[in-house]
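Supplementary Methods, section 5.1.

A reviewer requested that the exact input to the structure prediction be made available. We therefore reproduce it here, unchanged from the version used in the analyses.
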Amino acid sequence: MAGSGTPQPPQPPTRPQAQSPRPTPPAPVRPAGGQAPVRKPPQVLAINRREEQDRLEREATEARAAADAALQRAAELENAARAARGEEPLAPVAPQRPARPAGGDAELFDMGALEGLTMADLLGPDDSKRRGGRGGTTGSAKSFGAGGSAAESQPRAAVPSRTVDEFDFDEEAFLAALDENEFVGSTGEVAKGVVVGVESDGVYVDIGGKAPGFMPKKEAALGVITNLKERFPRGLEVEVLVTREQNADGMVTVSARALALRQSWEKVRQLEKEGKVVQVKVNGFNRGGVTADLEGLRGFIPRSQLQEGENHEALVGKTLGVVFLEVNPETRKLVLSEKKAASAALFQNLEVGQLVEGQVVAVKPYGLFVDLGGVSGLLHQSSISGGQLRDLREVFDHGDRVKALITELDPSRGRIALNTALLEGQPGELLIDKEKVMAEATDRANRARNVLRQQEQNAG
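The structure derived from this sequence is encoded token-by-token as follows.
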């Protein structure tokens, strides 16, 4: 109204509001105190198990009814067939079905009867006792549940007992089978085999095991082999040494090189024992001496054991006669000597009872050393004369020529034992007439040999 009340401020013109594309949901109303409202639990569809059981029982009842009808129909057809043959009809048999206990599953599966039973009770009597004794079951089997099972109520068929004699047994075939499957391939064993395959890195050898043995290329021989297929064709019989036993696949590792090395060491040791001179070819040198090959082994000749030790480089390619100073397969040490080979060659031409002549080169308190042309023999003071010697020089002195008999030879140690007392006609003759004894030494040596032989026979 004009002229009355408080004047109102001017209002802005009203604009039509734009419509929102979707309505804004009202904000939830929180109760006083700021606590969130209590949410209801999600609804779970309850399944009625009773209805499911009833349905299954109805289906089971219908199935039993259909089975009963089929059984009845089968009985009618059987009776009709018997009537056509003029036979008596069969009595109708009502189907027997176990009644469901009123107590449900708890009574059907009664576990109380199993309390106190052991595993032996559950398994029943031993089959071996049943086979070894009378026919049928032995003992009483404990029943499960109230009435026991139908299978336990029926007697078991008797099992006839059998002895070993009733079986076909071939002892020779059994032993042959054991031999075929015998373990093969112990380390260090020598085996004979046949080459069954060749690869670029080795050879396969059948040595009788469940798997062939493998021989690496580097173990095929002492030297270098360029073509394995030419050296080891299929079917070639070889002898090898087992160096590693069977692995998980039953394969062993074999070596022809290791076997050759073993055989070479055995042969070298035999040559050393015999004291023989062997010929070797020098194939290298160093500051200490030269090297040579002997039976596939690397031997070493020190400069002090060479005839031309001052110019040993020039010996490469030459053949030398040597003997053994040291042979040790464990350390693979083979040391040779050319200087001792000369004396060893002389030993090969000497024998016990032989008359030799030499020159006294040294006089010692215990005897004389006589040079026999490259080797020295010892004439011991007890072997010079059967008489009493006051001084060795009474008979022989340095530079004298001496004829003596060989009574002992030891090529490995380079020792020769000499004797002049056997040339005497009577003890002490050398002290009286040395020239006569030496002049008749040849004839006297023949008589002395007979004495030596007689002594050997008496000793034997």
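The chain has a mean pLDDT of 76. These observations are discussed further in the main text.
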